[in-house]
Prior knowledge:
Layout lengths: L10 H19 L12 H5 L2 H4 L4 H8 L2 H5 L8 H14 L3 H26 L5 H13 L4 H5 L4 H22 L3 H17 L6 H10 L17 H33 L12 H20 L16 H20 L5 H14 L22 H14 L5 H27 L4 H11 L4 H13 L3 H14 L5 H12 L3 H14 L4 H13 L3 H14 L4 H13 L3 H14 L4 H13 L3 H14 L4 H10 L12
Helix pairs in contact: 1-7, 1-8, 4-6, 6-10, 6-11, 7-8, 7-10, 8-17, 8-18, 10-11, 11-13, 12-13, 12-16, 14-15, 15-16, 16-17, 19-20, 20-21, 20-22, 21-22, 22-23, 22-24, 23-24, 24-25, 25-26, 26-27, 27-28, 28-29, 28-30, 29-30
Amino acid sequence: MIVASEDRTPRRRFFLACLLLFVTPWVLYARTAGFGYVNLDDPEVFDNARILAGLTWDGIRHVLGAQLLADDPHANYWAPLTYISHMLVMELWGRDAGAHHLVNVCLHATNVVLLFVLLWRLVPGATVVGCLLAAMLFAVHPVHVESVAWITERKDVLSGLFWFLCLHGWTSYSRSPTLRRYVMALLAYALGLCAKPSLVSLPLVLFLLEWRPCARLPAGREEESPRSAAWGSRLARSLLALTPFLLLAAAVSLITLRAHTRDAGAATLVDLPLTARLETMLVGYASYLRMLVWPTCLTALYPLRDSHTIAEVLLSSLPILVTTVVAWRVRQTRPWVGAAWLWFLVVILPVSGIAQAVSQSHADRFLYFALGGLELALATELSKLRLDTKRQSRCIAVAGGAILLALGSLTWRQVGTWRDSLALYERMLACTRDNALAHSYYGRALHGLKRDVEARAQLEISAALDPSLPFPGLGLASIALAENDFERARIELRGVLRNHPESYDANYKLGLAELRADSPQAALESFQRAVALQPSSLEASINLATVFAMLGRNADAEREFGELTRRHPRDPEALCAHGGFLASRGRLAEARSYFERALGLSPGHRRASEFLRQANRSAPQGQPGRQ
């Protein structure tokens, strides 16, 4: 069973260590308050109508329900607590990206302190210095930059909070089993799963801590033989206690699998055969080990390769094999080494490449939980050191400080690559080769800055590297639309739809191209397909209703506008569009209520003010709509 370490140091040193650990992440990450958001954040946070509306019952119901996976364009798995946290920050501080960044920093700093306290509780004979150095490794390691500096990865630091709270609850329950402690651990686990499904591996970590703990058995209790009745009884009790955790993990796994089956970016066995997945898994494990030991050239996207050479697979297997052999050889004298290694293997397994998205082979953020076992083993080793002289103590302190300082400097540099989209994608291209997605994202960022000549070049490189990707065609179509080259835009978008007929973006942009080319009937068909693919899309719904009105199909237009404002009751654009349609039909009293609601939600809203002035006249003009 897990036991708490004895209190061997004054409280003052303990709390000073907690304070230092909480402050360190702020020193490294506080400057993210001045960063904007990268365009990887757009779909999930800053273009999500429900998040922009703040904390509303409608938004909470949506993210908790199955509707999230059915029609939300921004969700690729069920993570309601993460979405609610974004809504809360939006409610309190609006679209200020700095506030969103600082919430991530605060959560990470809290997780560092929780890890320190956990190490103190788990490690027998724990010392403040040993646990401090181990927790500081978690605080300053560069692989965590992506989880903290990327607003969208709120799910990592938020689920990390409940990961550590669950470990604390389970530790308390293991030491002194009570129903209250058990329920608290289970509740923390359930909330963690609601923040990110990656916590499905946590029950195995809990089992691991029960059976290969760093902590010693209680005094007077002998190690049980695997053949003894006591050992079997203890195993049965552990499995029974973990059953609700495993059932929750299975349920969330099924929900996540359902989400990925509709995700165009998810790999199937046809896209990526089992042999390729196994190769990716072995190479991925080796890559993660390299990132832990030598964390240089880290970036947000590592392209997935279709195959690897035999030499690459064998070389990748070597560190895995060596680490496994070492852990086995020292299993009697240092069981915590094996525990740390198994922790790493178990946590990485769900994201090792067996069920990976086509777009990436591995990711820095997947290491957020995997380092816990390493830090547990490190704290145990440091706490067991008995240094006889001050010189030895100083040598250990200097060596540890130098390592942490080097990691901290790498983290500081890595944080700077998240200051804007261009810096992020330039880093991607510098650290990877033949990265079609990076070229595509870079092109999109350049287009956003009106640097269309450079953007077109990047998008064409992306298309040449991977013709199956939809993003280059979508980007080139956006440039063509900006240049009013509607025919070119239609050619690009039809090319995308040949390979990706269920692409919402392609159908929606084709509708815009047809509408601007004065082909409203063709635009109607494209907008209908877009809305069918993503019923919650504000832009597609507004334009669909607008085209119905343009074609004189007023009953259909009224139905669509009504559905639009039902889905987006707090969006000023939706309310203005509906009000404008009613005003054009001469229903001024009804129209006025929509415009007033829009102004109430966004005081000084220009379109709402203009429409309201028109509604007060006897003959309002103009078609509502947003393109």
